[in-house]
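**User:** Once you have settled down, spend some time on the protein underneath, comparing sequence with structure tokens, and judge whether sequence predicts the tokens.
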Amino acid sequence: MASHIVGYPRMGPKRELKFALESFWDKKSSAEDLQKVAADLRSSIWKQMSDAGIKYIPSNAFSYYDQVLDATSMLGAVPPRYGWSGGEIGFDTYFSMARGNASVPAMEMTKWFDTNYHFIVPELGPDVNFSYASHKAVDEYKEAKALGVNTVPVLIGPVSYLLLSKPAKGVEKTFSLLSLLPKILPIYKEVISELKAAGASWIQFDEPTLVLDLDSHKLQAFTAAYDDLESTLSGLNVLIETYFADLTAEAYKTLIGLKGVTAYGLDLVRGAQTLDLVKSNFPKGKYLFAGVVDGRNIWANDLAASLSTLKELEAVVGKENLVVSTSCSLLHTAVDLVNETKLDDEIKSWLAFAAQKVVEVNALAKALAGQKDEAFFSANAAAQASRKSSPRVTNEAVQKAAAALKGSDHRRATNVSARLDAQQKKLDLPILPTTTIGSFPQTLELRRVRREFKANKISEDDYIKAIKEEIKKVVDLQEELDIDVLVHGEPERNDMVEYFGEQLSGFAFTVNGWVQSYGSRCVKPPIIYGDVSRPKPMTVFWSSTAQSMTARPMKGMLTGPVTILNWSFVRNDQPRFETCYQIALAIKDEVEDLEKAGINVIQIDEAALREGLPLRKSEHAFYLKWAVHSFRITNCGVQDTTQIHTHMCYSNFNDIIHSIIDMDADVITIENSRSDEKLLSVFREGVKYGAGIGPGVYDIHSPRIPSTEEIADRINKMLAVLETNILWVNPDCGLKTRKYAEVKPALNNMVAAAKLLRTQLASAK
């Protein structure tokens, strides 16, 4: 019985790639240094899977930034602004597309389906001259082969690549991206031919868009693409991999009808209903790569339940044609539980990171083949039973409080227009008020202080003193820049979710449980293992301290319940909405304590609300109902004069704008500039928005510093569709990943642009 891994984490067990990338970007190391770190990581990953007994090991799943950007490079689809003149795409062009450079902005970045991973959105049009410009897939296959590992090269499938793209600037929005299929398939054929020549016997095409709600025209594109590729693929075993949701009956029919395809990879964790489609109709002689081990969470697999499912499938597809697999790439989980030295033994026994999931996949494959490891299965069963019966999982008081939420929609008593009037009387802000999103640069010194405090190398008094000094520096800078509503810069926080999870019950934390979010940016999601409550105030001390340093309004900074949920590894033994309601009640306690402490502006970030939207449209309404309700619970008890802000970033918000309005926040700041002001189109189309809104005026994920004129131009575009009295001026997102040398001039230009527009508006009256 064979085993397969869809994909694997890239950063390394201790974020080796992250540090190598940042050293290269800072010009502290060479391209050769970066390439060596990457090669060592790839070699280690392939060896680990080979040693674990995995038969189908992926190559080209590694990336220096993003796998979709790798596909863009392979196809030579470089936007003209980067000045690429042909040939093999190097690091300069590649990272300019990802991050921008001093003269041109980066390409748009958005969420990968409903995960916290971000991909770089291809910009395409009828005039793109596609060419085979990156041989990475072939090079990595050869690299693995030289190490004695025969891998399955992984490519983003041609149809999914186009469906994940957008029309380039200046191209009609109605342009059919699928019309480019005949132009990109010749490059795919070149890649396939080179892989065959290099000795590849299998190839994996990731076509995750098959799980979306696709019309017949889009489904037909898959048929047309693989019809065209059939002769080139001859002699290869071809796996089409799907993940993250069920396939519709129509999509499943399309998938199993594709020509030249040998095997189908299905997510049987999030796509449990797909199981019924397989049982009712599976093509004879084809392989099923059964994704029964969850690639998106960290809970140990219920091996007995998975083995039972696999035996059902074995009866349908045949023993020789069933391959045990992960539900999706392990990119979305932490690397190795072995590196966790501080988790207690009970919780640790409930978990499996990527390395452990590889072992689980192989254990299931061996069990199906009659070589069951009884001790391994017994230990797994004991851990499953321990988790179900552990008293630390359940808190009756929390469950009662969450149950009592039913029957109310938790809206504030006064409408937003009246609240904004009351808040303006208290805050006395100018038109086009300026603010930032929350965090300021996290310097090496600041990280050292936090690290030494956690390691008990400095006292609590010394830690508080150092953090107060950092807050004072940030407050003074904002006053010097003449920003209207200030933030304290979040120097006490390494991560916006981890910080709150550490202070809430029902959460556990890792030392090295890092997961890639984008590029070199890694997050360490908390693990929600039990009922959630807030034992004591979490942010009141720091927000009050910061407010005491200035007469200007100081925002209290909180992470919202939906974002905490979506950016954590969430317990899978109860519905997600129940866990979210518990978190909402905890944040509600914090909001009310901040208000009592004299904080008049409180930001409750819901950066990940859109990210959690199910991939099936039929499931949208239910999710949005409980997600928006959870946000309203957090602030339903505050006074009219307390201004509630929220923030959202790096997702397509236009399709949920009415739910955003239903959140009933007083002010929303929202990413806008990197996505080429896509957000503004919803207001051009007539959606009326009466609360305060701050579409971002510059992209903080690029080192590029925008000019005053550029920002003023962006604000003018906003004023064309939004009322002057509701518009705020702010960056796209928090500033923690930037350097002060970039932040100071950018914010200075932002404030100057706001003042310029105020003067122009005043003289126009």
Notes: The domain at 414-762 is CATH 3.20.20.210 (TIM Barrel). The mean pLDDT is 95. The longest strand covers residues 287-293.
